[in-house]
Structures are given as C-alpha cells and as structure tokens.
Amino acid sequence: MDAQHSELVVRRGARSGLPTMVAVHSTARGPAIGGCRLKHYPDLNAAIADVLRLSRAMTAKCAAAGVPFGGGKSVIALPPGTRLDPDLRRAAILDHADLIADFDGDYRAGPDIGTGPADMLEFPHAFCAPESAGGSGSSSEPTAIGVRAALRAATGSVAGKQVVLVGLGSVGAYLAESLIRDGAEVTITDIDAEKHLPATRLGAKWVAPEQALTVPADVLIPAAIGGLIDHDTEIAADLVVGPANNQLVTDDVADTLADKGITWIPDFVASAGGIIYTIAREVDRLPHDAALAEVDRIADTVRTILDTGATPLDAAKTLVARRMTEPGHHR
Ligand SMILES: NC(=O)c1ccc[n+]([C@@H]2O[C@H](COP(=O)([O-])OP(=O)(O)OC[C@H]3O[C@@H](n4cnc5c(N)ncnc54)[C@H](O)[C@@H]3O)[C@@H](O)[C@H]2O)c1
How far is the CA of 308 from the centre of ligand 1 (A)? Predict the structure, then answer.
C-alpha cells in the first residue's frame, strides 16, 4: 500500500476460505470504481501487489477520462493449483459481495479477468450487469472502440499498416476484426495456442508469443496482461497503444521508450473506453450510440497529450494531476 491509497481490506471468505480483497486508491473525484479480478496468484503478496497497482491506475484512468469517479479494484485470489468448481466459485463471489457491501458504495465493482456481467448481479454496488437485467453488459467492445480512437489520433488511418496484436481475448477479438476490416495487416499472438485458428479465420497472421514484439510493425497493441514492457524489451513498432492495464513494468520505462523513438500512449488513457461507455449508459442514462460517441473523447485526450512536447506519460500525468485538484463532475 503506498501513501496515497485510502483503504485496503483483505479477508478470508467465510464460505470459500479464499482470500478476497478490495483496494480503494482514491475517492477524491467520486466513489472508487474498478473491476473484480478472479484468478490464480503465486501467493497472497502477489495478489495484494496487483490490487494496489490496478486500483492506483484506475484513479488515473478515471481522471484522464474526465469521469466523476475514483480508483478502486478488487481481487479474489486463487492459490496455485486451486480447482474452481461451480460451488467454490459461487461461494467466492458471495464472500466478495459481503466485502463490497462493507464499503457502503465507496467501491463499485465491474467485470475483470475471471468475472463477467452475470457475477455483477450478486454484488451490491456494481456496473456492467447483463443488459437483460438493466445493466450495460460487457465493456469489451467500447474498450476496443476507445483503443481505435487513440490509434486514430496517434497515427491516422490504419489501412496498409502492419499491426501486431498481443492477446486475442474479448477486447483483442473486437480490435482484430475492426483493424482487418479497415485494411490493416494484422499479426496476432496469444499464449493460448487455441487462438491460432480463430486468428487465421479473421484473416490475420500468427506468430509465437516470444517473437511477437520484434515483428517489424507500425503499431504494437498490448491486449493481454500487464508488465509486458521493460527497459530492455526489444520492440520493433514505432507506436504502442492498447487496452492492457499496467503495460510498463515501471513508469520510467516510458522515458526509455521515448529515447528509442517509440511513441507509447499511456494505457490508462487508451483503455478507458469501457468505463466511459458504462458510466454514460448507467449513470448518465445515455442511449447506446450517444454513449459510444463519448468514447471518442479519447482521441481528443491523445491529441492533447501528444501536442505538449513532453513524453505522453508525463503529459497524461499532468492532465491527471490537474483533474485531481478539481474533484468530480467534469462532464
Ligand atoms: N474488457 C475490458 O473492458 C477491459 C477494459 C480495460 C482494460 N482491459 C484490459 O485489457 C486486457 C485484455 O482484456 P480482455 O477483457 O480482452 O481479457 P481476456 O482475458 O479476454 O483476454 C486476454 C488474452 O490474452 C491472452 N494472454 C494472456 N497472457 C498472455 C501472454 N503472456 N502473451 C500473449 N497472450 C496472453 C489470453 O490467453 C487471452 O486470450 C487486460 O489487461 C484487461 O485488464 C480490459
């Protein structure tokens, strides 16, 4: 927990026996929002480090997106080798619901790795419940649309451009489809070899994960997990922009990328399409098309930070710092 976090609660679930946790980084601009992640971790410390890092990034994401919410995140941590059968999963979700209730609305969950819209029905404060239940459903497509807005602002048309996509998951699949439709030459990698066939069917080339970053390309799209890029990571693309959270191992990697002539669009700017859309639908009650139009604001933010002359990360941090002094309601 760093000096800026407002709250971290870690508890063993009464029903499941699994560690369950909520981190609230900031409520300065409004209640903390962030996804609930359900996955295996090597140990408890790794899960706590993840929830703290991700909740901090959510504060920046909300501020950069100009939405009146703060940063939070939650994790249900599966110890190595745990088999998550339906009974254990349900017990874990109900334990997590109890913990969220204790935050009394100061933390509002959403889906993340390992959870989905249906789980949100169990939580007392949550976004992205299924549309059939009155929520706005999965935010994967608007997240992909936000990445496209960032890409457009940074590089214009993708027609004829070489794009490498890391991670053909729910956001990656929308991205691959739309990029290929718009004439990009897309190369895909995924740690899951079963994604090879769907990638080929989309009309993309396939590359092994360990070779993906050095494939000559105009654009690299990280759409898998975080921690992809360190100081000594070799990247062939000129532009890196994608939905994955916490792409850099540490913030100062942004300077290294800038020194190498690689433009990195901060992940907390490029990945905000989902929250912008969800808040537009569920808080502002906008219809689908109007909510998607809000996602396009990401293009303006990217243009603004690329115009400053500072590195994109420094420019985005300056924007976040300014927004943090003007709590909430900027829309
Ligand atoms: N879904 C959203 O609305 C949303 C919003 C904001 C940010 N994000 C972030 O975007 C990223 C993708 O989200 P998603 O919902 O598509 O996730 P997902 O779990 O559906 O897909 C992730 C994909 O990445 C692959 N992968 C995992 N590790 C990999 C590795 N080391 N190398 C190559 N491939 C690997 C997985 O096999 C999977 O196919 C995540 O970092 C997520 O936190 C998602």
Answer: 30
Contact 186, 215 (CB under 8 A): no
Residue 73 a catalytic site member? yes
- Looking at residue 312, its amino acid is P
Query: Which of 61, 73, 161, 317 is the catalytic position?
Result: 73
Fold of 139-331: Rossmann fold (3.40.50)
Q: What is the pLDDT along the chain (331 residues), one digit of tens a residue?
A: 666 899 999 999 999 999 999 999 999 999 999 999 999 999 999 999 999 999 999 999 999 999 999 999 999 999 999 999 999 999 999 999 999 999 999 999 999 999 999 999 999 999 999 999 999 999 999 999 999 999 999 999 999 999 999 999 999 999 999 999 999 999 999 999 999 999 999 999 999 999 999 999 999 999 998 899 999 999 999 999 999 999 999 999 999 999 999 999 999 999 999 999 999 999 999 999 999 999 999 999 999 999 998 999 999 999 999 999 876 554 4
Which atom of ligand 1 is least distant from the CA of 192?
A: 37
Asked whether the beta carbons of 165 and 185 are under 8 A apart, the reply is no
CATH superfamily of 7-57+70-129: Leucine Dehydrogenase, chain A, domain 1 (3.40.50.10860)
Measure 309 CA to ligand 1 centroid, in angstroms: 31
Q: Which ipTM value was assigned to this complex?
A: 0.99
Helix (H) or strand (E) holding 94: helix 86-102
CA distances from residue 34 to 199, 278, 281 in whole angstroms, order as listed:
29, 12, 16
